[in-house]
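Appendix B: a complete holo record

For completeness, this appendix reproduces one full record from the ligand-bound portion of the collection. The bound molecule is S-adenosylmethionine. The inputs are the chain sequence and the ligand SMILES; the output is the full three-dimensional arrangement of the complex, encoded as structure tokens. No fields have been trimmed.
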Amino acid sequence: MTTFTERPAADVDVANIARIYDYYLGGLYNFAVDREKADRIKSLMPSVDLLARANRDWLRRTVRFLLAQGIEQFVDLGSGLPTTGNVHEVAHARNPRARVVYVDYEPSAVLHGEEILADEPLAAVIEADGRQPEQVWSHPRFRELIDLSRPVGILMGGLLVFVNDQEDPAGLVADYRAACVPGSYLSISHLSDDLADADTRTQVGRMSDAYQAGVGQRLYVRDRETIASWFEGMELVEPGVTLMADWRPDPGRAVDAQTPSRVLGYGATARIV
Ligand SMILES: C[S@@+](CC[C@H](N)C(=O)[O-])C[C@H]1O[C@@H](n2cnc3c(N)ncnc32)[C@H](O)[C@@H]1O
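The structure of the chain with S-adenosylmethionine bound, as generated:
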């Protein structure tokens, strides 16, 4: 059962990536059409929800790390829905002055995000295409909340997997980096299958086909070397480009050690110098 307002502007008949992801995270901001597509994808890639959760856990640990480095402003590109345990909650638990701008290109994710953030003066969600940095920088809410003359944390969790090679993910990372002052940080997580066994690779291919069929968006799988190359010229934070579950895991917490999805994504953070 959904508990949020099904406003007409929310496209209830067409599934979208943000609400499918919310469903995998156990959230309530999804419709029957999203759950149907999500269940179809899960039938082809049974550990897809664990992959989503590993990605979100990596994002939370990353935000805590950046807060510990003194970062007080965050830009979450391809944010999905800012539901429970998202960036502003993690940030405000440690620094109530932290500012967060969520960016997504799904109008319905933005609509529900606005409802969720209605009482949060220091967090906003904006509708912009993360492949067009100018759309992000020029948005009035972005300009109100984020000061690019001060260090910022740019978060690209699960975004570049939706960006194809012709759209130049490396160039995009370079553009975001160029807009940030030294002392800023850039974090990326990305789907990969270079450590997966043959069966899991096949599942990843089917998952990508199912995304294409379900929401009209393919997933672009990349290897560790490619992802690492995007950080050239920046200072990679230890432990570098690692499986998401291995990136500064919370002490005593073994993350899905036995699931095939454990090897399906890398995460990394670098300091802009
Ligand atoms: C897998 S979810 C990731 C959510 C969150 N960043 C995390 O790491 O937990 C990907 C999100 O990126 C959004 N997205 C995909 N391509 C985008 C683009 N070009 N611009 C903005 N958002 C995009 C989708 O709508 C979706 O909400």
